[in-house]
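Appendix B. Raw example, untouched.
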Amino acid sequence: MLTRNCLSLLLWVLFDGGLLTPLQPQPQQTLATEPRENVIHLPGQRSHFQRVKRGWVWNQFFVLEEYMGSEPQYVGKLHSDLDKGEGTVKYTLSGDGAGTVFTIDETTGDIHAIRSLDREEKPFYTLRAQAVDIETRKPLEPESEFIIKVQDINDNEPKFLDGPYVATVPEMSPVGAYVLQVKATDADDPTYGNSARVVYSILQGQPYFSIDPKTGVIRTALPNMDREVKEQYQVLIQAKDMGGQLGGLAGTTIVNITLTDVNDNPPRFPKSIFHLKVPESSPIGSAIGRIRAVDPDFGQNAEIEYNIVPGDGGNLFDIVTDEETQEGVIKLKKPLDFETKKAYTFKVEASNLHLDHRFHSAGPFKDTATVKISVLDVDEPPVFSKPLYTMEVYEDTPVGTIIGAVTAQDLDVGSSAVRYFIDWKSDGDSYFTIDGNEGTIATNELLDRESTAQYNFSIIASKVSNPLLTSKVNILINVLDVNEFPPEISVPYETAVCENAKPGQIIQIVSAADRDLSPAGQHFSFKLAPEAAIKPNFTVRDFRNNTAGIEARRNGYSRRQQELYFLPVIIEDSSYPVQSSTNTMTIRVCRCDSDGTILSCNVEAIFLPVGLSTGALIAILLCIIILLAIVVLYVALRRQKKKDTLMTSKEDIRDNVIHYDDEGGGEEDTQAFDIGALRNPKVIEENKIRRDIKPDSLCLPRQRPPVEDNTDIRDFIDQRLQENDVDPTAPPYDSLATYAYEGSGSIAESLSSIDSLTTEADQDYDYLTDWGPRFKVLADMFGEEESYNSDKVT
């Protein structure tokens, strides 16, 4: 107490005497044992002529966190030099937590904390204090700012924010191998005491792992930990504050550690001998059995490769690895035959694909086992002596000629007889036959190489004891050629010779073709026909390479004298018997330039020397076409004029055709046509009625028709009807063919009932039924009217 008072007096003398003048109040922590000795002195105001005496300013207080006392916790005291203890000074408090967390006694200036504080929530509070006159309410001193710090206590345990942890470490690792580093955090103040000083330890997981107490690094504590023995480990880690001392708070977390696999185990066969049974009918490439070696490792470290050790069966069998099960699959490379060999024995080696050099000293990473395979007998189909039979036969060979034979045998124990027959699904089934017992193949039809040069079909062999067991073989028969066709010129040539050609000039190269199958080295020869060899205009030069040249023999040719030449060429082949043919080549004489280039070979070129140009020839052709057109037009006009004369003639009224552009009104339309032409010629002459207009109604005396029929009229009408029926140029349906001639001395005079001298009631139409089916409708119509009129009279 005495030391503190002396220090305060010394500081007061220094500042008040002007020896020291601080720029701002300096923080200082009180070390008083009594809390009420925490005092902040506020400097009082003096008159301007007086010297201001300033006291020491304490601007920092401390308060314990988590205070659980029944009374408010005393923090400190504010005091002004102007406060004489007379109650004239009032103290006020503002800032963080003023009134809610901290209160001040207005008279004494004592500050208290009215609730428990948490440093981790808010480590300090900044407040402002002022002394005012209680009467005038005026500030006695300027406002001063101070800080209240919350003093930490150990109230937070360490926490592992990233836990629980997962870690891996390879198996068989040495002691001290790094596994993982853990970290715990403590919310307490690390600058005050040991509240935030954390120490790590292992509560569970020893003796396999250890941890550094300061850094939290976990390492292996035992050597050669084997994954195949134990793969998973769970380690419990503790972090304790206060440096691990008694009374410190602690937190824990779990670390799950997995040992990863390394290739430290070789594959091992569970048994030394494997027995397999395989039918002899197993197809090539099929799986006949599986063996397996066991590797306790995992993943790629457990991948196994199987190999057959060279020896018995090495060339008949193969082994591959099943990627999913790591089994060795034995497959057949060649067919098995029980009758040849009944058992096979060989060794199989299993080894790892991915080796770890650290464990080579442990021994070889492979194992060997013996495989014994027993071949089972199976009833098999016959076996042909060849996989393919090829035969040859000449074309036109007589039917029934044997051209070859096939052979099949039953190789099983107790051999059975074999029957042969052609597979009828093939194309050659009708051209050949086979002997079912002997297997001989013979022709069944005449063969033509030019039609079909090769036949391909199948023959099936079956066992007599078991017909369902069959085998098939392909037969290939080549038809050999017989020289029966002569060679001919390969393509039609358009040969031309220039008028200025020279003797010995080759004007065309020709080649030959033979429809026969030409053997290698066949040769064609060319020569001129004997009838053309006398004073020839052209000759043939044989080049001895199956081609020949047409050679000119004259010094120039003239198209005016002869435009075309025909050259007979004889071509022979070299086969037996020799075949030859005479081929006539057409050679045209053409006009060429001095270099031998053909200018023209057509008809126009013949007239060029006369002096006619191309334009003149075109003009001549146009004139001819115009003259032909005039002649055709003249003939057409003459025919049209003759036709009009026939239509307008009044003298010949026997067969007039009147054309109308509109359609008629039917059977009841009596005004559409001039029917006067059907009347008696005498009546027409007397009345002079015009035929091209509608006639006026005439009151003529009615005449009764004769009872008997007029055969002349009927024959005339029948004749005209027949002519019009068979005439392809008969008028269309909108035309009318009139028949005005009724014959001389006809008693009936007119066939028309229109303007008749008699009434319809007096007419007898029974004769219409005798005219045939064409007048059936007309007879029915007039027959109905007649019956109707008779009913009315009745």
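End of appendix B.
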